[in-house]
């Protein structure tokens, strides 16, 4: 998904409180109904994929049409669940600037947010206006997906779902805009003053847009494309929903470059209707679903208890146990923020109880949480694979050795800190009772080997099954997600950790994450096409050649940009902005001695560089997730960032090693 807490902010909660009208209640029921359809279909996807895999394995008879159904399902799920995800504040955005304005009680908070919500209305309106002719064409021509004589599906129902979802999402953006306007009116000295402020902000925004339209008309397409990157970063940092920022900037730039509103509008509508029609995209909801099932089955707590016992005789053993348990948990959830949230509640209290410094405890959790985006399956590797049109299965395999290397590096760092600099680790400067091997309460019963196997055996077996299945060619990455999701569900059921109610909540949450991520991919698809239209890739290639930078010169600039942007933006946003540009350039470069065509190593380097940003201020999303879940007055946000600093430095060392020795990522392929 994306690694940032999303959406609503105070506009969803600070508007004047009043009973919802009948119309508002009916609209809410509509959104819930659409969301329910998408939620059920996620479960159906999992069942279909497992049935197909089983039928193929037992009878050598795959079920006809499953790949096509899955590819069309992604479009349906996203646009059915996007409106409700928006209503519940789950559509990705960066909150840094808006959150500060909100804390200060500034009226500019709702003014800016109103503009951003209106941009969302405009985006959905463009999809509706230019998507409707696509629906009519599909209906009148009886167009279909698939192959005659095998399996076919009419195009028009999917295009209708896109329009229904865009209409509902646009209406929800309009509702949020209305709440911001109402709040401005209620908080001002008079309603008129509040509305006047909003009117001035909207008028100023309109003037900037119109002025830019005519001012840029005389500029080159390359200049327009480069300027779009700067404005993209500005809008995302200011708080506009990332997908909306990508879409609206791309629409505007194509409009300026080609002087055609029809062309830019059609490109946006086509991106909404076609960019998600891919069987490989099924990997997103299925791996997210697997991670959700694992989270509710208490695997993180069990993995920590086992790791605690295994490393109890090692100096700084609880820290090493946290890294080991996080590596296991990360290998199945695929998200750093989930790891940070879970182990903040599990590991930090235990470490504090045994005399570790709070700063060190939160630093260990922050550092080890980033393993979630490197050790497969990883959502960031999935996003990279989709953006770079690279094998997701190969990316998963390539992430294994760097993930293990990073885990070992963290463990070595903890041991060095605990033995050579104990005052930075322990409150008393010497450790629990002054001796290693005493990190257990007096009389505490140790787990037997059988008990440890019961706790972590099933989940380790599931990890091995997925990786071995993908690596051995038994099933694809998408099928691996389906098999893994079913396996994780069975583990949760066997542990009696899931009920029908929690099952529904897991499916709904999976839908929200899927809708948010895939909406970003729709916008990123349009953004990549705009970049191509602008001519930036050719200009960059020519500039690199003339400057004599070469491949590694370009890579150095790219990695530096990733790390720097990681200090202000979330991981998914950075990748969506930079990867389309760089992959187009890299794939077009032909340089002796450099395998530019292999994007696998490049993907691992990208994820490592991006993940460093999760530990660095001012955003440092993993650090914010830990601080938000901790609720301990003894530990400040500054403590979290200071504790994470040695781990960020260690990540940088591992990144340099992977750059210097590409075989670390490619050895298993």
Helical proportion, percent range: over 70%
DSSP strand tally: 2
Chain-averaged pLDDT: 83
For the largest sheet, list the strands in their spatial order. Answer: 1-2
**Beta-strand residue fraction:** under 5%
- Report the span from N to C terminus: 26 Å
What is the 3D form? Answer: globular
User: What letter string, H or E per element, gives the SSE order?
Assistant: HHHHEEHHHHHHHHHHHHHHHHHHHHHHH
Uncertain segments of ≥5 residues (pLDDT<50)?
1-16, 433-438
Structural class, by secondary structure, is mainly alpha
Return Rg in Å: 25 Å
- Count every helix, treating DSSP H or I runs of 4 or more residues as helices: 27
- Oligomer state equals single chain
For the biggest sheet, the summary is:
2 strands, antiparallel
Short description:
This protein is mainly α and 669 residues long.
Topology:
Layout: H1 22-59, H2 66-87, H3 96-103, H4 107-140, E1 144-147, E2 151-154, H5 156-187, H6 191-215, H7 221-238, H8 242-258, H9 261-274, H10 283-296, H11 299-310, H12 317-333, H13 336-353, H14 358-369, H15 379-387, H16 392-398, H17 400-420, H18 449-471, H19 477-494, H20 500-534, H21 536-547, H22 550-565, H23 571-588, H24 600-612, H25 621-630, H26 637-660, H27 663-666
Antiparallel strand pairs: 1-2
How would you describe what is shown here?
The chain has 669 residues and is mainly α. The chain has 27 helices and two strands. It has helices at residues 22-59, 66-87, 96-103, 107-140, 156-187, 191-215, 221-238, 242-258, 261-274, 283-296, 299-310, 317-333, 336-353, 358-369, 379-387, 392-398, 400-420, 449-471, 477-494, 500-534, 536-547, 550-565, 571-588, 600-612, 621-630, 637-660, 663-666, and strands spanning 144-147, 151-154. The protein has a two-stranded antiparallel sheet. A hairpin with a 3-residue loop joins strand 1 (144-147) and strand 2. Helix 2 (66-87) packs parallel to helix 5 (156-187) and helix 13 runs antiparallel to helix 14. The longest helix is centred in the N-terminal third of the chain and has 38 residues, at 22-59. The radius of gyration is 25 Å and the shape is globular. The two termini are 26 Å apart.
């Amino acid at each position: 998904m994306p690694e940032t807490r999303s959406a609503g902010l105070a506009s969803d909660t600070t508007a004047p409180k009043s009973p919802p009208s009948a119309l508002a209640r009916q609209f809410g029921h509509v959104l819930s109904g659409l969301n329910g359809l998408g939620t059920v279909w996620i479960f159906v996807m999992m069942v279909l994929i497992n049935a197909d895999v089983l039928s193929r394995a037992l009878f050598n008879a795959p079920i006809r049409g499953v790949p096509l159904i899955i590819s069309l399902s992604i479009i349906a799920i996203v646009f059915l669940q996007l409106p409700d995800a928006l209503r519940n504040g789950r559509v990705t955005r960066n909150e840094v600037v808006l959150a500060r304005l909100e804390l200060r009680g500034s009226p500019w908070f709702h003014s800016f947010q109103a503009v951003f919500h209106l941009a969302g209305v405009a985006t959905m309106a463009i999809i509706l206006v230019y998507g409707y002719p696509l629906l009519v064409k599909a209906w009148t021509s009886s167009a279909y997906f698939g192959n005659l004589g095998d399996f076919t599906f009419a195009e028009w129902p999917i295009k209708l779902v896109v329009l229904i979802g865009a209409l509902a999402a646009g209406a929800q953006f309009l509702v949020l805009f209305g709440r911001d306007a109402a709040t401005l009116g209620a908080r001002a000295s008079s309603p008129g003053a509040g509305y006047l402020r909003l009117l001035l902000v909207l008028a100023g925004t309109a003037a900037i847009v119109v002025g830019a339209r005519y001012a840029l008309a005389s500029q080159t397409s390359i200049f327009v494309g480069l300027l779009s990157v700067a404005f993209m970063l500005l809008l995302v940092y200011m708080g506009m929903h990332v997908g909306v920022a990508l879409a609206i900037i791309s629409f505007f730039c194509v409009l300026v470059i080609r002087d055609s509103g029809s062309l830019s509008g059609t490109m946006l509508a086509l991106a909404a209707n076609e960019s998600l029609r891919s069987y490989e995209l099924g990997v997103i909801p299925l791996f997210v679903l697997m991670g959700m099932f694992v989270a509710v089955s208490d695997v993180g707590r069990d993995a920590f208890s086992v790791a605690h016992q295994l490393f109890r005789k090692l100096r700084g053993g609880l820290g090493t146990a946290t890294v080991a348990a996080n590596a296991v948990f990360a290998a199945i959830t695929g998200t750093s923020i989930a790891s940070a949230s879970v182990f903040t509640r599990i590991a930090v209290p235990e470490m504090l109880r045994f005399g570790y410094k709070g700063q060190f405890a939160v630093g260990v959790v922050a550092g080890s949480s980033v393993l979630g985006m490197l050790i497969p399956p990883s959502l960031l590797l999935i996003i990279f694979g989709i953006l770079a049109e690279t094998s997701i299965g190969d990316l998963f395999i390539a992430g294994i050795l760097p993930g293990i290397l990073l885990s070992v590096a963290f463990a070595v760092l903890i041991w060095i800190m605990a033995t050579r600099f104990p005052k930075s680790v322990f409150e008393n400067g010497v450790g629990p009772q002054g001796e290693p091997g005493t990190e257990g309460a007096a009389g505490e019963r140790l787990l037997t080997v059988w008990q440890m196997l019961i706790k972590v055996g099933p989940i380790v077996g599931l990890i091995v099954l997925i990786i071995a299945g993908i690596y051995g060619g038994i099933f694809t990455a998408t099928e691996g997600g389906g098999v893994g999701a079913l396996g994780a569900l069975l583990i949760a059921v066997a542990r009696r950790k899931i009920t029908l109610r929690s099952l529904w909540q897991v499916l709904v949450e999976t839908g929200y994450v899927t809708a948010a991520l895939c909406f970003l991919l729709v916008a990123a698809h349009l953004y990549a096409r705009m970049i191509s239209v602008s001519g930036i890739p050719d200009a960059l290639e020519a500039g690199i050649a003339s400057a004599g930078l070469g491949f590694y010169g370009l890579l150095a600039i790219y990695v530096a940009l990733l790390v720097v942007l990681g200090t202000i933006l979330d991981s998914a946003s950075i990748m969506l902005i930079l990867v389309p540009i760089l992959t187009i350039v890299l794939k077009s470069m032909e340089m002796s001695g450099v395998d530019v065509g292999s994007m696998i190593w490049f993907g691992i380097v990208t994820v490592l560089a991006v993940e460093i940003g999760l530990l660095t201020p001012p955003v440092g999303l993993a650090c914010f997730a830990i601080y938000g879940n901790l609720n301990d007055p003894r530990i400040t946000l500054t403590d979290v960032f200071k504790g994470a600093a040695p781990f960020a430095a260690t990540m940088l060392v591992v990144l340099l090693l992977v750059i210097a020795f590409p075989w670390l990522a490619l050895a298993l392929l």
